[in-house]
Specification:
The structure holds three protein chains of three kinds.
Chain A lengths: L3 E5 H13 L3 E7 L8 E6 L24 E10 L2 E6 L7 E6 L1 H14 L6 H9 E6 L25 E6 L2 E6 L2 H9 L18 H8 L4 H10 L4 H7 L7 H4 L7 E7 L4 E8 L20 H20 L9 H5 L6 H14 L4
Parallel strand pairs in A: 2-6, 6-7, 7-8
Antiparallel strand pairs in A: 1-9, 2-3, 4-5, 4-11, 8-9, 10-11
Helix pairs in contact in A: 6-9, 6-11, 7-9
Chain B lengths: L15 E6 H13 L8 E6 L7 H9 L4 E6 L10 H19 L6 E5 L5 H18 L9
Parallel strand pairs in B: 1-2, 1-3, 3-4
Chain C lengths: L1 H12 L5 E7 L4 E6 L27 H4 L4 E5 L1 H12 L8 E6 L21 H4 L11 E3 L14 H7 L3 H12 L7 H5 L24 H14 L9 H5 L7 H15 L27
Parallel strand pairs in C: 1-3, 3-4, 4-5
Antiparallel strand pairs in C: 1-2
Classes of the chains: A alpha/beta, B alpha/beta, C alpha/beta.
Chain lengths: ~350, ~150, ~290
């Protein structure tokens, strides 16, 4: 499993064509459909020309491949006094992701914990099973990246079935998992064994990311566990709009809402849709009481869940340091600064 | 979404929903009926107190649920039972119509009219001309689905 | 900027307000700032990266902000239109807020953009801006600035879309709205979207499906654009906040054009002008009505 192989760009293109021809869904970073702002997003591609491997981080997280923004859970139909449930087909199309960022691949593994916890989410795992992730080491980063602060790095192989490292001439391939072996078996011709180690194009990146944020998650968790009422929450939450954009671009946020959509008097579809704890509605009770009645409480919840509650339950930080929340936030919340402030306070032993 | 309605010979028959005000158009439609004026039977009438009550979401919901065309009709200006409901509606529909057109909902699928309680003939005309227009346009199969 | 900081200090010292809502430099760019201490007024800045519309924070729904007390808010002329809208629609009282107007020379599209202001990165609305200082203001700070460089018709894209066929337009909008995940960031950052219970949250019946599928997305975006008719102040925050980079401004600009053409109404920072949707004329055009 640890024999390094070499994948030339030409062979990668050929591999993509092979996969598409075989009816596999191929997902890769590609241009998004925005007309006035061009961005890169993970999208289904039909040909290698649509794949952008040297671009910026895709604006949408990879989780959409195994956990779509909306999905039908089942359909119902009422016939006389009986209700028939029609299960939505659970056969998932084989999918290969090419060029997943390490922060996105890791996000899938981190969320596996809760999806398999007290109730096994068969939709999540069904899609996970059907999806092979060919992750790729980052060659670029910016000031919003902080994967190293949460135990990852630009070359982390967590969540990857193959890990590709860009080198001169193509990519070095590290086959990480049995699922990766299975794909390799089918397409071995594209990936001969590597000769010597080629110079990687990712050198120096880890240092750059570390310079953005150097904190200890265990220290942060300790502070969070004892500072529920700290004035920091009120202060930082003032500028938060509660828009939830952060949750919707996050590789590890996974909360969802369930809705029923009737299509007539006697039939309809039950769906689940992405949701965010940052909205006022998220914890609104039927009685009208809201335990998180303002943005202070809601924003605190976000940080607590990611850096204290989830780690306490599953031993994993619910964050992969991808930085999307920082980039997308219209109010400049900047999680990096907030974590730095909390870590400093944790070291100082006092209030933030 | 349900398949387009067809008659015995397979020809497409449009499904049209009409949102009408109680005081004028609904009464006018009633008059058309009691006067035995022949009208296309493609239209389902939904009665509201006033065009001012007609939310633009009703129009969208009709399309979502399979309507091929929509009619919105009420009292003539100055005749609103609630004095000004139709004036507010007029502005609202004027703006929404252009917005719908902008996103690609063909404006020929939505008919707006003022039909008074005594204009049974006009109602029949609106029904027949709208039905024929939408029949020509065909089913609204491209309205977005889930 | 010193003028701004001195004014802020004075307002706090004299207890005219409990907090200043302005801008500061964050780690990566400019962002909104709430300053409650005189010493912290040094943080306040105003430059071409102050793109945010701070009026959004004035909604009474934001109880944790309302709890701060009387605020002084830094407003550009576009932001002042939003404050006027909130006053016009009885969300805040004029006397409950102190407005620090700033003379603006245009802002960038992205608050983290470190480059100087130029035709390449200026927000499109700034190029068309006719009044670079607000009328609705208690104080006015900053030097008058020239109009920013930039070109191109603001609404060229609107005309392009209008020239397409209905089928092409529908296909285009389905493509543009497909990445929408219904995060509602557009609504949350909008100063004029202040409803306690948004129509999109209503159930029994559900008029606007909350699912991010094509049908639900179209209903949401059309409804929001309509509900902002004559109210949208063209601050561009919705488009800036959208994590899916959807050109939302196209819908709002289209509606604004319809309202201007039909009713001669353009949003201004005068709270006493009535909204076009809430009013009518006996002889409003009705050429589309049989």
């Amino acid at each position: 499993m640890n024999t390094k192989r070499m994948l030339s760009r030409a062979n990668l293109d050929a591999l993509i064509r092979d996969l598409v021809a075989a009816g596999t869904v191929v997902v890769a970073p590609t241009h998004s459909s925005g007309q006035e702002r061009t961005g890169v997003t993970y999208g289904q591609v039909q040909s290698p020309d649509e794949v952008l491997l040297d671009g910026p981080q895709p604006i949408r997280p990879l989780k959409g491949v195994v956990f779509p923004p909306t999905e039908a859970l089942f359909r119902w139909r009422q016939e006389k006094s009986a209700v028939k449930i029609e299960e939505v087909p659970t056969g998932f199309k084989e999918t290969v992701v090419i060029g997943a960022r390490p922060c996105d691949a890791a996000g899938l593994e981190v969320v596996d914990c809760v999806m398999g916890w007290d109730f096994r989410d068969e939709l999540w795992f069904g899609r996970r099973q059907a999806t092979t992730v060919l992750a790729m080491a980052c060659t670029t980063c910016d000031e919003s990246c902080f994967c190293t602060a949460v135990g990852l790095s630009p070359t982390s192989t967590r969540g990857a079935d193959w890990f590709l490292t860009p080198v001169d001439g193509g990519f070095e391939v590290d086959v990480v998992t049995p699922k990766g072996e299975a794909i390799l078996d089918r397409y071995k011709a594209r990936c001969p064994e590597a000769g010597g180690a080629a110079p990687s194009r990712t050198a120096g990146l880890e240092q750059q990311v570390r310079a953005n944020l150097d904190v200890r998650p265990d220290r942060i968790r300790g502070w969070l566990e004892t500072h529920f009422d700290d004035p920091l929450w009120k202060r930082v939450a003032l500028r938060c709009h509660g828009c939830g954009a952060c949750a919707f671009v996050c590789p590890s946020c996974h909360c969802f809402d369930i809705v029923d959509e009737p299509d007539g008097a006697a039939s309809g579809t039950r769906r689940r849709n992405w949701d965010s704890c940052q909205t006022a509605l998220f914890t609104l009770h039927g009685s009208g009481h809201n335990p998180r009645k303002d943005q202070t409480a809601r924003f605190r919840q976000r940080i607590m869940h990611k850096f204290s509650i989830y780690p306490a339950r599953f031993g994993e930080v619910l964050c992969t340091g991808c930085g999307r929340c920082v980039r997308v936030c219209a109010a400049g919340m900047d999680l990096v600064s907030i974590l730095a402030e909390i870590d400093r306070a944790a070291q100082g032993g006092g209030e933030a | 979404m349900s398949a387009p309605v067809t008659v015995g010979n397979g020809a497409f028959e449009p499904s049209i929903v009409a949102f009408v005000c109680n005081w004028c158009t609904y009464t006018g439609a009633d008059l058309a009926g009691t006067s035995r004026i022949l009208m296309a039977d493609n239209v389902r009438v939904i009665r509201l107190p006033c065009t001012g009550r007609i939310d633009t979401l009703f129009i969208l919901k009709a399309f979502e649920r399979g309507a091929d065309g929509v009619i919105v009709s009420g009292c003539h200006p100055a005749d609103c039972h609630y004095t000004a409901g139709n004036y507010h509606a007029r502005r609202r529909f004027a703006i929404f119509r252009e917005l719908m057109n902008f996103v690609g909902i063909d404006p020929r699928r939505v008919t707006f009219s003022w039909v008074s309680a005594s204009e049974g003939g006009k109602w029949a005309e609106v029904v027949n001309s709208t039905t024929e227009q939408v029949r020509q346009l065909g089913p609204f199969a491209t309205y977005p689905e889930a | 900027m010193q003028e701004l900081r001195e004014l802020a200090r004075k307002l706090l010292q004299e207890k005219q307000v409990s907090a200043i809502l302005g801008y500061e430099h964050g780690r990566l760019g400019t962002r909104p700032a709430f300053v409650t201490d005189v010493a912290d007024c040094e943080r306040l800045v105003f430059d071409h990266r102050c793109v945010h519309n701070l009026a959004a924070y004035l909604s009474p729904r934001r109880t944790h902000i309302a709890a701060l007390g009387r605020l002084a808010v830094v407003v550009k002329s576009c932001d002042a239109r939003a404050v006027a809208g909130l006053i016009r629609e009885s969300q805040i009282k004029r006397e409950d807020v102190v407005l620090i107007g700033v003379r603006c020379g245009g802002v960038v599209r992205d608050a983290a953009d470190a480059r100087p202001l130029s035709a390449d990165n200026v927000a499109p609305r700034c190029v068309a801006c006719e009044k670079r200082e607000p009328t609705l203001a208690d104080h006015l700070v900053g030097e008058p600035k020239p109009a920013p460089a930039g070109s191109g018709s603001r609404d060229a894209r609107l005309s392009e879309i209008e020239a397409m066929s209905a089928g092409e337009r529908l296909a285009l909008w389905m493509q543009l709205l497909a990445p929408c995940t219904r995060c509602h960031a557009c609504r949350q950052v909008c100063p004029m979207c202040f409803c306690e219970r948004c129509i999109a949250e209503k159930t029994q019946p559900t008029w606007i499906e909350t699912s991010p599928h094509a049908r639900g997305n179209l209903a949401w975006h059309l409804t929001r654009a309509l509900h902002l008719a004559g109210r949208c102040v063209d601050c561009g925050e919705c488009e800036r906040a959208c994590p899916a980079q959807i050109p939302l401004g196209l819908l709002n600009r289209k509606v604004a054009r319809v309202v201007a053409d039909r009713y001669g109404y353009i949003v201004a920072d005068d709270p006493s002008t009535p909204t076009p949707i809430g009013t009518y004329q006996l002889d409003d055009a009705q050429e589309f009505i049989q």
